Amino acid sequence: MSSHLLLYILKRILVMVPTLFVIVLVCFLVLNFAPGKPGKAGEAAQAAGSEEARAQYRIFKETFNYDKPVLFNTYFWVERDEVLGLMETSISPSADPKDKIEAQNQLEDYGEYIVPHLIEIASQVDDFELKRLAFYQLSINGQKRNLFLGRESDVPAAIKAEQREIGRHNQQVSKWTLPEKATAEEQARLLATWREWFDTNQERFNWSSGERFSRFFTDTRFYKYMSNVIVGDLGFTIKKEPVLPEILKRVKYSFTLSMLSIFLVYLLSIPIGIFSAMRQRTAADQVMTVVLFILYSLPTFFVGTLIVQYIPNGEPLFTSGFETSVVANPNLTTGARLWDMVLHLILPVFCLTYGGLAALSRYARSGLLDVIRADYIRTARAKGLPEGIVVFKHALRNGMIPILTILGTLLPVLFGGSIVIEYIFEIDGIGRYLLQAIQLRDYTVIMGILLISAVMTLCGLLISDISYALVDPRITFD
User: Fold this and answer.
1) Structural domains of the chain in order of their starting residue, each with its CATH number
2) Alpha carbon distance 398, 474 (integer Å)
3) Would you say 327 and 433 are in contact if contact means Cβ atoms under 8 Å apart?
4) Who wins on pLDDT, 273 or 138?
5) Residue 443 binned pLDDT confidence (cut-offs 50, 70, 90)
6) Of 85, 201, 188, nearest to 141 (Cα)?
7) Distance CA 129, CA 252 (A)
8) What is the pLDDT of residue 475?
9) In this structure, how many other beta carbons lie within 10 angstroms of the beta carbon of residue 395?
10) How far is it, in rounded angstroms, from Cα 323 to Cα 307?
């Protein structure tokens, strides 16, 4: 590999960095400002007054960092009167229900930053409902944040003990609330309990100037999202499953389908394109053109649906899933299972291939036609070289540049698969997973898949540029 090529690759990688940053930024903006924001159903449940639903919604917000400020953390400077105003709004009978929910959510989102104000309000106000709400809010905002919010089986062993301690603390704090009819003695006793707890945990609420400056930037949604993406953490699904492992375990299905399809498309389209170019305007070329355009005009969803509808399931080809369930056939040998997988793949691969075959063969034909009219091709023929050498040695490499341009965009296809084909044939690949995420409004999964696809696209374009120099000696990286 030449030094010029290495320098070119380095420059392209450096250009990718700001490009990827913009892509990640767009993903972040969609996740946080998409219409019908995630968790809207949780807000509706809050309106219905379900305490369990409100608790689940709080966990949802904490899981996805929706309880944090977006870009800069200004929660340090929230005034006591603002907290009191939100509390009054949340219990006011005359307030609009939407305003009440928004006020309650804001109080919860302030988290530990308003705990000193809540202690003060609980000590000073005489209104029983406000005092009761202050204690209730303390039982929520006084809780410590969970260290890991995924599945229990995925919690690292190193933090399990600390997580259990946090759970015990939060469970205890959540019980320190006032009943609907509490005596003055009960109110005083509960206030004393909270003051003792506050004194014991005073270090949590005494932030130094350095801590305030740090948290101003780091305790935000943007910082959490960017720092997680850098280490490959794409967050959690709405089912609290880590996004990246869920995506990766489906890649093998999409990759197998796409790889077979792309291999067949290139294997067939290049010879067809050469054949059509060498027999331009002949009857064979015209027939080939008509057949390919008919194939290109048939929508994949239409052909796939017809196949599933009119080919009986399992007779003679399987049309559902990637392979027969092991539960249904537990005694399949390795060879039998491989053959079973081939039967499942034939029809999906056919549906993925025929449209690309029609388009790519036209690109190969037009690229070769442009080259064989060049002066150096006429010179090669004038020297008496056989037509096969003229075409395959001199014309073909330069005529393949349009094909290589398309090849650079196929890397994300290998990753992403096909939504339509995977849905029709019930293949649990990336495409079907993306469709399910769209239906469930699982924004984290959607943005995770699109983010990886964007990275694949940038890598594919780089590979495409490098391949130009391999097929065309005129292209250098000097």
Assistant:
1) 37-230 (no CATH), 243-471 (1.10.3720.10)
2) 9
3) no
4) 138
5) confident
6) 201
7) 57
8) 64
9) 25
10) 17
